[in-house]
Amino acid sequence: MTIEPPPPVITLEQIYKSYGDNAVLRGVDLTVRQGEAVFLIGPSGGGKSTLLRCINFLERPEAGTLTFLGETLCSQNRTNFSIAPEKQLRRARSRMPMVFQQFNLFSHRTVLENVMEGPVTVKKMPKNAGVGLAREALDRVHMLQKQDHYPDQLSGGQKQRVAIARALAMEPPVILFDEPTSALDPELVSGVQTIISDLSNQGLTLLVVTHDPAFVQSTAHKVCFCDDGHILESGTVSDIYTNPRTQRVQKFILSSGSRMT
Amino acid sequence: MSVFWSELQEYFPFLLKGAEVTLQLSIISMALGMILGFLAAVGRLSGRKIIRWPLEAYVEIWRDTPLIVQLLLIYFSLPELGIVLSAFWAGVLGLTLNLSAYLSEVYRAAILAVDQGQKAAAVSLGMSPLQVYRRLIIPQAFVACLPTQGGYFIALLKDCSLVSFISVNELLRHATIIISNTFDSMNTYLMVAIIYFLMSFTSARCVSYLERKLTPSRNRKPKIKPTISEMPQGGSII
C-alpha cells in the first residue's frame, strides 16, 4: 500500500530557455509538491537561477509546459508553444513570490512599507489590513522592531529577513528562494537559514536554489542536481549526498566536500 | 554710488515686475517641460519603433538648434499656420519644447539607472508595468535626477532672457526699457544680474532642500522612533 503523495504545486515538463546560442535550460522536468522543500543544487552556470526565474516568468521559457496549482502558465504541444496572458502570469507571480540573493528591497521605502507593498498595491488590500498583515509577517522573521528603518540602515541578514517577510505578506502557497544566503556574512547565514527551515516546518512549500550543502542537508525534502541545463539527478538528501548515481554528481559532491556517510 | 541707490529706488519695482514674468515663464515651462519630457522618455524606452523614432527625431532636432532660433520660428511662423499665440505663450511653448527635449534624456537615464534587482522584485510580487513605474521607478528616478533637474531649472530661469527677443515683457526687456530712458546700462544691468542671482540661488537652495528631504539615507533617523525596545531577539536568530 502506498500513501497518496500531496498534490503538485509546480510542475515543469521539458522547459527550454536559451540566450542567443547559449542553451541554458535544455528540457527540465520538475515537480514540487505541497509542503515540500525542494532544493536545487549544482555548479554555477548550470541553469539553477534561470530555472527559478522561468518558473515565475521573470524570464520567458521558450518551450515546455509549466503548471502552477492546476493552472497552465505555458504549454507545449507538438508544434505550438504558448504562454498565458500577462494578467494571468501576474496573478501567478503574486502567489509565488521570490526572495533574491541581493535582497532587492525597495530602497526608498521603510521596512514596513516594503512588506506592505505587495498586499496593498498588488492585492488591493485596504491600507490598515495591509499594515496588520505586514507587521505579522515582520514578527515571524523577528524584524518588527525595525519596521520604520530604511533598507540601507539594516545589515545583510536583516535585509534578507525583511525580504522573506515581504514574500510572506503575499500569503503565498509557495516561495521561491534564489541563493538567499550567498550574499551574507558567514555569521548571519544561520539566522536566515533557520527562518527558512521554520517556514518549511510550518508546512510552507519552498523551492530553494543554494550552494550551501549544510543548508540542503538540514532542510531539504527533495534535492535536484542541476547542470548543463538538465536536472541530472533528484532524490532525498541521502540519495544525493550518500549514494549519488551518476559520476557527475559524485564528483560534485566530493569536490564540495559535502559527502555524507 | 548714490546714483545707483536713487535709480535702484526708482526702477527696482519695474524690474521686479519683469522678474515676476520671468518666474511665471520659468515655472510654467518647467512644469510642462517635466510632463512632456517624462512622456518622451517613457516613449523612447518603449519597444515600438513607431513611437520611438519620432521622439528621437524630436529630441535631436530640438537639442541641435539654438533656443533663440526656435523661439523666433515659433513666434513668427505659427501665425502663418493660423495659430496665433501671445508673445508670453509663444515663449512658454518654445521654452517647454526645448526643455523637455533635454529633460527626456535626463529622465531616460534616471529610469534606466533604477536598480534592476528592485524592478525584478516588484515584478515578482505580481505588479503590472504601470504599478512598477508608479510605485518604484518614478519615485526613485525623480529623486535621483533632482539635482540635474534643478540645474536645468536654473538654466531655464536665465534662458528666459532670450524671450525678450519676441517682445515678452520679462526682466531683461524691462531693463532694456529702463536703459533707453536713462542710458545708464551699467547700473541697470547690475540690478538685473543681482535679481537673476537671487532667483537662481534661491531655486538652487530649494532643490537641495527637497533632495535632502526626499532621500532616505543612512544618516537619517527612522521616520518614527521605534516603539518596541531594541532587544536582541531570542534563541537562534542572529
TrEMBL record, chain A:
Question: What positions does the domain ABC transporter occupy?
Answer: 10-253
List UniProt keywords, sorted A-Z: ATP-binding, Cell membrane, Membrane, Nucleotide-binding, Transport
The name of this protein is ABC transporter polar amino acid permease
Q: Enumerate the InterPro entries for this protein.
A: AAA+_ATPase (IPR003593), ABC_ATPase_HisP-typ (IPR030679), ABC_transporter-like_ATP-bd (IPR003439), ABC_transporter-like_CS (IPR017871), MetN_ABC_transporter-like (IPR050086), P-loop_NTPase (IPR027417)
* Compartmental location: Cell membrane
A matching Pfam family: ABC_tran
The family database entries (SMART domains) matched by this protein are listed as:
AAA (SM00382)
PROSITE patterns given for it?
A: ABC_TRANSPORTER_1, ABC_TRANSPORTER_2
Record's family?
A: Belongs to the ABC transporter superfamily.
Signal peptide interval: none
Q: Name one GO molecular function term.
A: ABC-type amino acid transporter activity
From TrEMBL, chain B:
SUPFAM superfamilies reported in the protein's UniProt record:
MetI-like
Instruction: Just give the chief location class.
Output: membrane
What are the transmembrane regions?
Answer: 23-46, 67-90, 189-210
Protein function:
Part of the binding-protein-dependent transport system for glutamine; probably responsible for the translocation of the substrate across the membrane.
- Gene3D superfamilies according to UniProt: MetI-like
Query: Listed GO cellular component terms?
Result: ATP-binding cassette (ABC) transporter complex
Task: Indicate what this protein is called per its UniProt record.
Answer: Putative glutamine transport system permease protein GlnP
Transmembrane helix as a keyword of this entry, yes or no, is yes
Originating species: Acetobacter cibinongensis
Q: Where in the cell is it found?
A: Cell inner membrane; Cell membrane
| UniProt topology in membrane | Multi-pass membrane protein
Q: Provide this UniProt record's keywords sorted from A to Z.
A: Amino-acid transport, Cell membrane, Membrane, Transmembrane, Transmembrane helix, Transport
UniProt-listed Pfam families:
BPD_transp_1
